[in-house]
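Format notes (please read before filing issues)

Several people have asked whether sequences and structure tokens are stored in separate files. They are not. Every record keeps both together, in the order shown below: the sequence lines, then the token lines. Line labels are part of the format and must not be stripped during preprocessing.
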Amino acid sequence: MVTIDLERVNVVAPYHFTPTSYSVLTFSVLTDYGVKYTMSFYENDLLPGIHAYEFVISNVNQRKSPRDIKLRQSIIALIQEFFRQREAVLIYLCETGDNRQRQRFRLFESWFRISGKGNFVSLSMDLVDLEGVPNYAAIITRMDNPNLSFITKQFTETVELLREKPE
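Then the structure lines:
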């Protein structure tokens, strides 16, 4: 199981994370704009044989937030702490409820590029579901993950399976 040391995160994050009662790996943060977010790492079994976590960001009070560099820096600090563990695998799926999943995905990818992508492998996919709704996902792990080739193979095979149209 992955662990997060919030003291280490809060030393470098501009916003202060606090643990929640929801889950051991769920944290809340309040921005300067009054927007409350929770950020969670949930175990995900999308990839067979891989212990991966899905990263979820939720705007709890549903307030509109401008581009907030302090929020970006805080999220990056949290994710970097997650990846202190060499075998950590992160799955990022973009929520589709408001048709803004493409913007969310592009924003997450740009944050990832800024945060020092050189030490990580990121694979991404886009899929259109049966209703025609585009879905975006990425998987990220460290370059020195001893299971890197297996993870890459499983992600590629899963994407191909999901892209097959049912008959």
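For reference, the curators noted about this record: The chain has one domain: 6-163. The beta strands are 18-19, 26-30, 36-44, 52-59, 89-93, 120-128, 134-142.
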